[in-house]
Amino acid sequence: MGLFNRDRCEGKTPEQLAGMRTAGLLVARTLELLSAEVRPGMTTLELDTMAETHIRDHGGVPNFQLVPGYRHTLCTSVNEEIVHGVPGARVLREGDLLSIDCGAQVGTWNGDAAVSLLVGGPDAGRPEDVALVEDTKESLWCGIAALRVGNSLYAVGAAVEDSLTASGQRRGREYGIVEDYVGHGIGTSMHMDPQVPNYRVSGKGPKVLEGTTICIEPMVVLGDQDNIVLDDEWTVVTRDGSRAAHWEHSVAATSTGLCVLTALDGGQARLHELGASYSPIDAA
Ligand code: MG
Ligand code: MG
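^ thats the input. predicted complex w/ magnesium ion below
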């Protein structure tokens, strides 16, 4: 496939979407488990081991390990780390802002999702961090709700950005949206074309096709979005040391509506609140 195809969406059949839902549900359940188990005093490597065991016990393969040079199941990004934090001996402390990114392949198909949370619960976090986590999650759902067959894929990023502008204004701050890393298509591999910007871009953009599956994943910071990669060659941190949040879902678009493949309820509740059509996909 040449550069020519980089911006095209690909459609999947109902059978293929059922496989995608199976993989997405395994990722959803793994993140649910980790979110319930994380606590101060744990290392990020303990979370990684828990995730790998859960995925393999349920018939999946940790697809992050299929990325050349990466040996872990998760990315665990703490505080000023935006994405691609490598699990290790770091001990989580009360009030840390932790982003957990997780993926699994089941059979042919892949899921990929991320959550952000405050270690020790929201009460343990700085108010601005709690707001950042909530507002980033809200922007993800606004981006999801803007996905529609026949429309431009770029509507997603515009909705993410508008949501964060509104949240920021409400809170009297200006959030930074990271532009160096973007969402992506997903299917037989975790990372596929097209790129999915989490911010407004000019141009027509690829058209969303029947059965398109993409990952939407806003990375949002309290300060400036400028970032650097640490010497481990993975961990992306804010240059100004401000804290970051990252939320992600894998989503399927069909002419009857959306299914959030990595949400336990398929997104039914939130999509309803946002006025978007929900269209269930049963796991294979
Ligand atoms: Mg991810
Ligand atoms: Mg992703």
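The radius of gyration is 17 Å.
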